[in-house]
């Protein structure tokens, strides 16, 4: 059992028999033992030795279909996009596959570090896709789709051929071809446990919360010229976990005296709720076109509101470039409200 699973079981079972035995004076009568179903819902991590990997398979061709429908909007058709997230694919070679070390990681002239350049274990890629993707609907992919998308990324990186089918039975063979498989140092002991060959952690968790400064000091910040380059970051965070993005949108100007209250406020809430602003700025292109560009293009259509509402729900490609917009699973009433707002000029 991995360290993560042990820690999780202990946390969920506070107040149960084991926890009471460990802390009889502090937690008597508090909490209950986690049920097997509750543990199973969280116990989904996949270790570098592939313990925890569910049975299943997925082909490169199937992965391409899933990718274009659910992933390309943020990562590009071939995983090369540098708009919303840094590129996933690029910077590796056939020689890297042979040696297991990515040469360009030491090349300071290379413009960036892609996921495939840094990735040392296939389990990391599989596990992250399974838990966190797609961005707007984490944990919504089936096991087959996760295998397929992983296979597609590995194919784009030159690790597996286009007719390859990735499965729990051959994933260890794929690990042996990962371009940076030998590029990770394990002496730090961050994965303790003799069963996977690692030693004592180099950080022992001693009490370090003493003599803290009274006032926090900001160590980094987002430059003013870049704050709203891809829309308001606070609107783009998923409602998972405690972290929230910084408010980067310009401060709204007060309405002129006597002006009627605009319904755009409600539409703004819908745009944030359905993550539209992750790919579309109001005045500027992000992944997709600016919303006011869309409004201008269809300004002469008498049925613009219903047409745009239908396009939002069905998705499409080719009108604004090669990157497709996947179908959006939002209520028809919400789509129509956004369509009406666009038809009125996105004001």
- Largest sheet, if any? 2 strands, antiparallel
Q: How large is the count of helical segments?
A: 15
Structural class: mainly alpha
The average pLDDT score comes to 80
Q: Which ranges are low-confidence, i.e. pLDDT below 50, for 5 or more consecutive residues?
A: 8-24, 252-265
Radius of gyration: 24 Å
User: How far do the termini sit from each other?
Assistant: 56 Å
Strand order of the largest sheet: 1-2
Helical proportion?
25-40%
**Beta-strand percentage range:** under 5%
Q: How is this structure best described in words?
A:
- The protein is mostly helical and about 350 residues long.
- It has 15 helices and 2 strands.
- A two-stranded antiparallel sheet has the order 1-2.
- Helix 12 packs across helix 15 (about 330-345).
- The chain is globular, with a radius of gyration of 24 Å.
- Mean pLDDT is about 80; it is low at about 10-25 and about 250-265.
Summarize the structure.
It is globular and about 70 Å long.
Would you spell out the secondary-structure blueprint of this structure?
Elements lengths: L2 H10 L4 H6 L13 H7 L14 E3 H11 L1 H4 L18 H6 L15 H4 L3 H11 L10 H14 L8 E3 L3 H5 L57 H4 L27 H10 L17 H7 L6 H11 L17 H12 L4
Antiparallel strand pairs: 1-2
């Amino acid at each position: 059992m991995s360290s993560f699973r042990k820690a999780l079981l202990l946390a969920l079972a506070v107040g149960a028999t084991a926890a009471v035995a460990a802390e009889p004076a502090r937690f008597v009568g508090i909490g209950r033992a986690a049920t097997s179903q509750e543990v199973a819902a969280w116990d989904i991590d996949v270790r570098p030795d592939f313990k925890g990997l569910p049975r299943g398979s997925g082909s490169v061709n199937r992965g391409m279909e899933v990718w274009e429908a659910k992933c390309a909007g943020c990562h590009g058709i071939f995983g090369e996009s540098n708009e919303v997230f840094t590129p996933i694919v690029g910077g590796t070679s056939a020689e890297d596959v042979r040696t297991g070390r990515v040469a360009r990681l030491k090349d300071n002239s290379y413009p960036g570090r892609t996921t495939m350049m840094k990735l040392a274990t296939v389990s990391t890629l599989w596990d992250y896709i399974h838990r966190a993707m797609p961005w707007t609907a984490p944990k919504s992919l089936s096991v087959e789709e996760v295998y397929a998308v992983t296979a597609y990324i590995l194919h784009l990186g030159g690790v597996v051929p286009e007719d390859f089918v990735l499965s729990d039975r051959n994933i260890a063979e794929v690990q042996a071809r990962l371009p940076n498989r030998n590029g990770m140092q394990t002496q730090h002991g961050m994965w303790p446990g003799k069963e996977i060959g690692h030693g004592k952690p180099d950080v022992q968790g001693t009490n370090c919360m003493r003599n803290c400064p009274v006032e926090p000091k900001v160590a980094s910040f987002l430059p003013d010229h870049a704050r709203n380059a891809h829309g308001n970051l606070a609107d783009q965070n998923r409602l998972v976990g405690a972290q929230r993005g910084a408010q980067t949108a310009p401060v709204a100007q007060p309405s002129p005296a006597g002006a009627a209250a605009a319904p755009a406020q409600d539409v703004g809430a819908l745009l944030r709720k359905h993550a539209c602003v992750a790919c579309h700025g109001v005045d500027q292109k992000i992944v997709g076109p600016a919303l006011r560009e869309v409004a201008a293009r269809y300004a002469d259509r008498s049925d613009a509101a219903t047409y745009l509402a239908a396009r939002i729900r069905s998705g499409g490609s080719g009108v604004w470039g090669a990157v497709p917009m996947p179908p959006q699973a939002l209520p028809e009433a919400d789509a129509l409200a956004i369509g009406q707002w666009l038809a009125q000029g996105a004001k």
